[in-house]
Design goal:
The chain is of the alpha+beta class. It has 5 helices and 13 strands.
Length: 236
């Protein structure tokens, strides 16, 4: 599979069932169409997923579905434990909201890896990026939510952030609103949390060295709603 033409999705597998598989495959198809990658076949992808799951045990797993000019590949690996809270840094690099690949999970991942490595060297697990206008956008592998004046907010897709599956479900289930604000809003936010298919809803305890309550009250509510919905709705 040529890396320049590859797309991927990452899913959590619980008890042999990939969470929100349909949403992930819809996004994969949408990205393939947007980027002109021909030949996407959902039946072929679902068959590959089923074959991979046939050897999966009951333990939590991470599934990576790759699609490109060479067809489909599905990888299953152990899912590392996720800490209850984490520390993040804001990055000196920017997310280009005008990029041709904005909002798509492509295998051309060097920019994200560089930003993440910078954060890791400072003892953090995620790097948060502004767009070219200075608006808060996203992390290298996660979307970001924050609380201001009692309101749960997240950047809009206009900032070039990924239309994350977990992000979309939190918006639907928890009443968050999309607001575009300078990345410096994180200096005043009362609560911050990250969302992704493997982190779920992870509280942030520190942003650029500033300590936060983690989880704060709204974050805790979102986490409780998330756990209940995931338990009862494996493919929302």
């Amino acid at each position: 599979m040529h890396p320049a033409y590859g797309l991927f999705e990452t899913l959590k597998v619980l008890d042999g069932v990939p969470f929100a598989l349909t949403r992930h495959l819809r996004r994969l198809e949408s990205s393939a169409q947007a980027l002109g990658i021909e030949g996407y076949d959902e039946t072929q992808v679902r068959d590959a997923v089923s074959r991979a799951l046939a050897s999966a045990g009951p333990e939590a797993m991470r599934m990576r579905v790759l699609w490109g000019s060479g067809g489909v590949e599905v990888e299953l690996t152990a899912l590392p434990p996720v800490a209850a809270s984490t520390a993040v840094r804001t990055s000196r690099w920017r997310r280009n909201e005008q990029s041709a690949v904005r909002g798509h999970k492509t295998t051309a991942y060097a920019e994200n890896l560089l930003a993440l490595a910078e954060a890791t060297r400072q003892g953090c697990t995620e790097s948060l990026l502004a767009d070219t206008r200075g608006m808060l956008s996203e992390g290298t592998g996660a979307n970001v939510f924050y609380v201001m004046d009692g309101e749960l907010r997240t950047p809009s897709l206009a900032t070039g952030c990924l239309p994350g599956v977990t992000r979309a479900l939190v918006l639907e289930w928890c009443g968050a609103v999309e607001v575009d604000e300078p990345i410096t809003v994180l200096e005043r936010a009362n609560e911050v949390f990250l969302t992704s298919s493997t982190r779920d809803v992870q509280a942030v305890r520190q942003v650029d060295g500033r300590q936060l309550t983690a989880p704060g009250p709204l974050t805790r509510e979102v986490q409780e709603t998330w756990r209940e919905r995931v338990r009862t709705t494996p493919d929302p």
